[in-house]
Amino acid sequence: MSDFILEIYGEEIPSSAQSLIENQFEKLFSQLLEDNEIKYKDLLTFSTSRRVVVYVNGLNNYINSKQVEVRGPQVDASQMAIQGFLKSNNLENINKLETKVIKDKSYFVFKKKTKKQNISDILKTETPKILQSIKWVKSMRWGNHNDRWIRPIKNILCIFNNKLLKIKFANLDSNNFTFGNYHFEERKFQYSNYLNYREKLKKTFVMLERSTRQKHILKKIDAFCKKNNLKLINDSSLLKRISNSVEFPNVYFGSFDNKFFKIPEFLLKNIMSDKQDYFIFKEKNNKLSNFFGFVSGIKVKKHNKLVEGNLNVLKARFSDAAFFINEDKKKGLINRVNQLKEIVFYEQAGSLYDRAKRIKNVIKFIYEKLGKKDDQFENFLIYANTDLASELVKEFPTLQGKVGGFLANFENFPKTVSQAFSDQYEYEFSKSYDNFLTFILSISQKFDSILGYFVTKESLTGAGDPFGIRRSTLSIIKICIDKKINLNFSELFDFHKNLYLVQNINLKIEFSFLFDFFQKRIVNLFKEMGFRNDIILASIDKEFNPYAIFIRAKKMTELYNSRDGKNFLKAFKRLNSLNEDVENKSVEVSLLKKEEEKNFYNLIDYIKKNIDESKHDFIFENFNYLYQLSETINNFFDNVIVNDDNLKIRTNRKILINKLHQVLNDNYRFSLLEI
After folding, report:
1. What is the DSSP string of 335-388?
2. Which residues of 350-366 are buried (b: 16+ CB within 10 A; e: fewer)?
3. Rounded distance, CA 376 to CA 384, Å?
4. Residue 617's pLDDT is what?
5. Is residue 527 located within the same domain as residue 610?
6. Cα(469)–Cα(451) distance, integer angstroms
7. Number of structural domains the chain divides into
């Protein structure tokens, strides 16, 4: 059996692009092999800061010839179509064609034998096409060619069956050698086989697998933590980002002066992990440690200068942060709110000050709808986003909210308010988190962000989420469900839209558009939770209340899985199959002749009354009633002839069926269930 390897080696590949290229390599090469019916054992992809690799093993050298059937036009097709088919298959007349009936239609077919193909020829032809089809977020051209890549390419290794496979891309011819780690003289070595290739990469300080680099980093950190009685603050995205930045990670450690602990902890963490890509630690008492760890692609015996250089950068960052904090403290939030008038929210969606007023009103609206009071917080709500005008947020944009919470606390805002300001941009909250104002502020500002986006864009296209609109939508749904917030989104939309109109901002979308947008997110979320698709759709109400939808989906699942529930759904299926659109007339009681139809009629009133009183939860809260409900429906259909000879009786019975179907399906949408 043969194997195939392609390695593109070049300048630094950004961390965010590495998984992207790996995924595309896996998809495109597996599709190529599948389309050509080429069998293989494994298809592996790897990436580092300098190279991206695809490796396939268990390949044959050839695709053997086989007989295939080519379908042509129908037998009664025009002569032009038939002649075209003959010409495309190098045939002189129809004598070599056969006929075949497919779905009651007769077609001409031509059976021919395919040629034996070298798999190497297919890979040689198709690999450059795959490289040209790679989609980057950003790409570049260099030199005298039109091919694009994330960064300039220096070398292409391309091998099939341990022999050079000649391809050309980006003005480079492939060859049978590659390079080791450029920090260690970039030693060139020749490819002989895959195992030897992996071994030589290892000897030249290249760890090809991301997981190997991550384990190496964590092993060094673990030893340091044990020695210094510390605990790593885990950050999987940081670990991935750092392991993607080097081919061989060398881990170093340093510590900063305790005087910098005057700076808020959230800011110290942000500077070290987000700005500097440093690992951060906690003491055993869970307090932030002044130790930090960092990774370099350079290995040095005397690393004091390297650590000192990184420490100097960190000190400068901390000093800048301390300066910005002092400047922001001088002015605070209250004196900065008018600056929001000068900052545009979205184009055509007003200023951040307009947004602040909307959010304040939305919070009040939600509190009222939920029967809660916000009197003690009302005067502070206008400042929820004022930190966006602070010097600290200008320098550290990802800290919006955290800075607001810090400044609110400094200005003696209520603790509940400062915490809500700080955490409003979180997408999920732990079970133990219980600041209700945070949840409502988070929902309000995210809802406003979604509507503000659609003021400008009117649609959301593409797979990405550059403004976080999809993520915010999902967050709102999760908060409502996790924190049991019973909120009618159709009412919230109407109220919110009116706030835009008062500010002379034209929000063109209707709730039906937003309903569809939210529904896509909730369907995917509920599928992840394990709910059936039909139950999800049956649970979604027109008011779109995520928490109510969640409860209904749970109850619907419980009903679907219970014995009485299954029997009821079978009875409902009978009702559904015989239901017709009829005139909206009342049932004429005088025309009810049989006991079964009288019971059927009484059932409608009984259910309707109980549904009205229980706010649609009657059936879900009374599973023991399902047996009687099923029995009444079945007795009616077993003993009553709907299509009676008497037109009035027949019409009355159809109205009767329609009324029960209406009261059940309008409230529970059982017709959407797969019974």
Report:
1. GGGGGGGGSBSSTTS-BHHHHHHHHHHHHHHHHHHTT---TTTGGGGGGTTGGG
2. bbbbbbbbbbbbbbbbb
3. 15
4. 65
5. no
6. 9
7. 5
Are 292 and 219 in the same domain? yes
| CA angle 424–427–428, rounded 5-degree value | 105
Return left, alpha or beta for 112; rule: phi > 0 is left, psi -120 to 50 is alpha, else beta. beta
Contacts 24+ apart (CB under 8 A), 144-147: 144/171, 145/170, 145/171, 147/171
Q: Report the CATH number that the domain containing residue 148 is assigned in CATH.
A: 3.30.70
> Which amino acid belongs to residue 242?
I
In a domain, 316, yes or no: yes
Same domain for 324 and 371, yes or no, is: no
CB 152 within 8 A of CB 142: yes
Single residue among 98, 113, 128 that ends a domain in this structure? 113
For residue 396, CA distances in Å to 343, 355, 393 come to: 17, 21, 5
Domain that residue 252 falls in:
210-331
Burial class (CB within 10 angstroms; exposed 0-12, middle 13-18, buried 19+) of 431: exposed
In total, the chain counts a number of residues equal to: 675
The answer to whether 368 touches 477, Cβ cutoff 8 Å, is no
Got the DSSP string for 504-526? T------HHHHHHHHHHHHHHHH
Domain membership of residue 557 (yes or no) is no
Same domain, 360 and 465: yes
Q: What pLDDT, on the 0 to 100 scale, is given for residue 361?
A: 95
Token readout for 33 is 């092999």
Neighbour count for residue 11 (Cβ, 10 Å): 15
Rounded to whole angstroms, the Cα distance separating 545 from 484 reads 11
pLDDT value at 614 more than 60: no
Mean per-residue pLDDT for 445-464? 80
Q: Does the CA dihedral 420-421-424-429 come out positive or negative? A: negative
- In Å, what is the CA distance from 263 to each residue of 51, 318, 325? 40, 8, 8
What's the CA gap between 99 and 102, in Å, rounded? 10
Structure tokens at 213: 């680099």
- Identify the burial level of 612 via C-beta atoms within 10 angstroms of its C-beta, where 0-12 means exposed, 13-18 middle and 19 or more buried: exposed
Q: Cα 58 to chain center, whole Å?
A: 35
Instruction: For residue 663, give the 3-state DSSP assignment.
Output: helix
CA distances from 62 to 3, 36, 68, 118 (A): 12, 11, 17, 5
Report d(CA 606, CA 465) in Å as an integer.
Answer: 49
Mark whether 269 and 127 lie in a shared domain. no
Q: pLDDT confidence of 613, banded at 50, 70, 90?
A: low
497 with 410, same domain: the answer is: yes
Q: What is the CATH number of the domain that holds 583?
A: 1.10.730.10
226-276: per-residue pLDDT in tens? 999 999 999 999 999 999 999 999 999 999 999 999 999 999 999 999 999
Q: Both 447 and 486 in a single domain?
A: yes
- Compute how many other C-beta atoms are within 10 angstroms of the C-beta atom of residue 310: 19
